[in-house]
Recover the amino acids of this structure.
């Protein structure tokens, strides 16, 4: 067992582009759940339309990359409207069922046979983000300290992704400390009270859903750009549950909660993964096979969700009082 | 050596079968080579390179499900090489067909290439005929990429069938599917009614039932015995604990329960180590019974040891949803680790002759599923309508506080609801596995349809779940008359969203303010 290697890998993952992507999507989820009290179990649906917004515009229709990003934002707005109009007037549990269902339907539609000309079906699309990498200002080579190193490509991607996370966090902070933010938090605490003050609760919830969805879509676009390839089956419902675990770990209802949650979560997951993998390789655990590690990791996330809710619902930096929201 | 020969033969046959199917499935798009490393299990991160002559055409790494694909410039002869360095240490590449395969690709063909891995030293012995048949069939099913979403359409329906026959056959398939959804969803709806909680882990109770039936019908040596002993010990511990509580001084019941549980764990370990020495198996019907009992006990255990303590801690409902998601993630992936990711079928009742009843063609297996499901639904309805506990369940589902203040022991009723729900969903899982295949995600896919069924029928009502399940099953199957079968679940979920728009309380739900 090489602890230094495990530690280095874990740090690389924790500050790498993937963690940034999840942080961005979790920021959107934080707006939905942490501030507005919307139970969105389908954030991965927004990531899906965001990722495919970029991929389809560039690969299938030959548009430039920036137009692809605009398209993915447009798709997210559309999805939020489609989702919100029937369900936002209903109780929170209806929204939760509908979001999980809509995200799954979206995945089924994108991977369906008839959509293959546009989305590439199950095989997805590849090679649409060369414009982004051509703009890379760093010369080829590895950058880093000690065992932690990133290629020039990863470094460029990380700067873009974390930059976006920073912008999103600042936007969130400004929004939440504005009158709009106070109304949103009021809706989370007591919808009826806000309604009796003459606010249009439905419109506010819809704005929150749209904005959080756009953050999700940007995260999806980053996934697409980072991997240069996209398939519908990357967007399984588990991704949403990962986001929930990160949000709850960091602390819902805090600007930095989702960011912290994503970094810590990826660090812990990688440590868990690599430790199990090296244990399996040395043969200490005879019943464990290398390919089971991924599945065990999902199970760990489930356990983490359970324990967090029971013992520390406010997460690392959250405020316990703010997390006592309930379905009315 | 004979076994090996059989393996090779079967692999060849499977490849021959797979190739024409591929050619029919996709003759529009360009050529490619694809496959999935999934025997004995899916392996991620294996490098595969495709050469034409000495020129490299493309290189890929297998994805998380072990699948890979390389686009080809055109038809011709190709050499596919699997990098042995990238294979995890616990496997070696099987000598047949080896790590290097030469294939010729016809115009427009999307050819599946099968690599086989085996544990080191067992390359020859372990590849049993059934396994390799599975690999062939698996490659076939995965090849068009549509196989994953599970539900197949009705038997005997192909392009040439007249429309009327198609309608009848699909309606029958929809009826079966709907009954399965209804059976599994009753528990979901009653649980929502009694505790106002949406149980996101309900789908995995379905998988649990199907997998348990599989375990006990195919020889339950070792692992199955351990599980059974654990179950019995748990029941004994809980029973002794509740029997003694109130009659003995405070620490005694807890200590007795803990001792029994510990003895149970020890015994189950011993039985597990004994392994195949205590092997036994029952016919599928018996295994189904065991599975239902285990499902009921599991549901009751969840209520008693997870949900009731959480309710006593005043954990809010939203938080409970998240806990149920956590439980479902855990359960699903533990089942995946314990039983593997391949699709399996029950041994019994597989290849059956169709019976013709007028315009309907149905296998005896499906007919008995229909009969048994209807019987179970009627029994559950009678139970809810005429027995004391049934009436109490409906009363608690209707108004928990009122039921409590009129002297009903709400906690006890909730416990019964959970065990009823667990048992019924396990039964639903056995039927679903019998009708389709057993695999680790079956319950999760069914869960979304169960949600659709309970919302459609009216959240919290048992009869609503039955009606909603039937409607969803029929809609899903009949939609394949006009639309691609990959989208059948999407249509069922779309129906749910439309219903929420026009009648949020569902078909049988009482009109109340829900927003």
């Amino acid at each position: 067992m090489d602890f230094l290697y495990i530690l280095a890998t874990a740090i690389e993952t924790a500050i790498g582009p993937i963690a940034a992507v999840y942080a961005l999507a979790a920021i959107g989820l934080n707006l939905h759940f942490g501030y507005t009290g919307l139970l969105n179990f389908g954030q991965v649906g927004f990531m899906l339309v965001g990722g495919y917004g970029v991929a389809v515009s560039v690969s299938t229709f030959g548009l430039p990359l920036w137009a692809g990003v605009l398209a993915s934002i447009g798709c997210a707005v559309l999805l939020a409207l489609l989702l919100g109009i029937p369900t936002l007037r209903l109780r929170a549990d209806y929204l939760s069922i509908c979001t999980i269902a809509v995200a799954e339907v979206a995945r089924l539609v994108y991977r369906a046979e008839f959509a293959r000309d546009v989305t590439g079906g199950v095989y997805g699309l590849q090679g649409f983000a060369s414009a982004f990498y051509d703009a890379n200002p760093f010369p080829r080579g590895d950058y880093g300290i000690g065992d932690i190193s990133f290629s020039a490509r990863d470094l460029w991607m990380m700067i873009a992704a974390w930059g976006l996370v920073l912008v999103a966090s600042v936007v969130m902070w400004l929004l939440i400390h504005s009158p709009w933010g106070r109304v949103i938090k009021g809706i989370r605490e007591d919808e009826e009270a806000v309604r009796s003050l003459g606010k249009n609760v439905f419109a506010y919830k819809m704005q929150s859903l749209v904005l959080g969805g756009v953050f999700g879509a940007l995260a999806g676009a980053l996934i697409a750009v980072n991997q240069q390839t996209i398939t519908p089956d990357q967007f399984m419902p588990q991704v949403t549950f990962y986001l929930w675990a990160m949000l709850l770990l960091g602390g819902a209802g805090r600007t930095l909660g989702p960011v912290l949650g994503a970094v810590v979560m990826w660090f812990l997951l990688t440590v868990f993964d690599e430790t199990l993998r090296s244990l399996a390789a040395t043969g200490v655990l005879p019943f464990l096979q290398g390919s089971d590690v991924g599945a065990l990791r999902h199970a760990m996330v489930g356990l983490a969700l359970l324990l967090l809710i029971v013992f520390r619902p406010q997460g690392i930096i959250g405020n316990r009082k703010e997390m006592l929201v309930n379905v009315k | 050596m004979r076994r090996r020969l059989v393996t090779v033969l079967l692999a060849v046959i499977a490849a021959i079968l797979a190739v024409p199917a591929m050619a029919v499935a996709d003759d529009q798009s360009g050529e490619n080579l694809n496959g999935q490393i999934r025997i004995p299990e899916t392996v991620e991160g294996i490098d595969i390179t495709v050469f034409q002559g000495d020129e490299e055409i493309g290189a890929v790494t297998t994805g998380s499900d072990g699948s890979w694909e390389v686009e080809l410039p055109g038809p011709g002869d190709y050499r596919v090489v699997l990098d042995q360095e990238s294979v995890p240490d616990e496997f070696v590449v099987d000598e047949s067909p080896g790590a290097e395969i030469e294939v010729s690709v016809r115009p427009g063909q999307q050819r599946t290439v099968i690599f086989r891995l085996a544990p080191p030293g067992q390359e020859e012995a372990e590849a049993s005929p059934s396994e390799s048949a599975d690999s062939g069939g698996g490659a076939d099913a995965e090849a068009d990429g549509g196989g994953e979403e599970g539900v197949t359409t009705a038997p005997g329906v192909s392009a040439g069938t007249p429309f009327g026959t198609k309608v009848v056959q699909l309606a029958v398939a929809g009826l079966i599917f709907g009954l399965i959804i209804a059976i599994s969803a009753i528990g979901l709806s009653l649980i929502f009614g009694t505790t106002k909680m949406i149980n996101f882990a309900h789908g995995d109770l379905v998988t649990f039932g199907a997998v348990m039936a599989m375990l006990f019908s195919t020889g339950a040596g070792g692992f199955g015995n351990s599980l059974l002993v654990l179950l019995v010990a748990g029941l004994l511990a809980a029973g002794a604990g509740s029997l003694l509580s109130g009659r003995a001084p405070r620490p005694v019941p807890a200590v007795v329960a803990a001792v029994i549980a510990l003895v149970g764990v020890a015994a189950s370990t011993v039985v597990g180590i004994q392994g195949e020495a205590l092997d036994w198996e029952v016919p599928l019907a018996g295994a189904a019974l065991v599975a239902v009992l285990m499902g009921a006990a599991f549901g009751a255990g969840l209520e008693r040891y997870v949900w009731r303590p959480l309710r006593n801690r005043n954990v809010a409902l939203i938080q409970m949803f998240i806990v149920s998601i956590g439980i479902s993630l855990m359960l699903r992936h533990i089942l995946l680790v314990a039983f593997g990711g391949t699709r399996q079928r029950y041994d019994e009742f597989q290849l059956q002759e169709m019976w013709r009843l007028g315009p309907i063609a149905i296998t005896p297996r499906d007919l008995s599923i229909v009969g048994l499901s209807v019987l179970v639904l009627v029994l559950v309805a009678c139970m809810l309508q005429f027995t004391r506990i049934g009436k109490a369940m409906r009363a608690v589902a209707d108004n928990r506080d009122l039921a409590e203040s009129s002297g009903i022991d709400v906690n006890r009723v909730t416990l019964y609801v959970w065990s009823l729900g667990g048992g019924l969903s396990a039964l639903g899982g056995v039927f679903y596995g019998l009708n389709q295949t057993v695999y680790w995600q079956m319950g999760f896919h069914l869960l979304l349809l169960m949600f659709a069924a309970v919302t459609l029928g009216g959240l919290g009502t048992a009869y609503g779940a039955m009606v909603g399940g039937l409607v969803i099953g029929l809609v899903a199957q009949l939609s394949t008359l006009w639309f691609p079968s990959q989208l059948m679940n999407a249509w069922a979920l779309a129906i749910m969203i439309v219903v929420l728009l026009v009648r949020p309380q569902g078909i049988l739900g009482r009109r109340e303010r829900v927003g």
In short: Residues 169 and 243 of chain A are 16 Å apart (CA to CA).
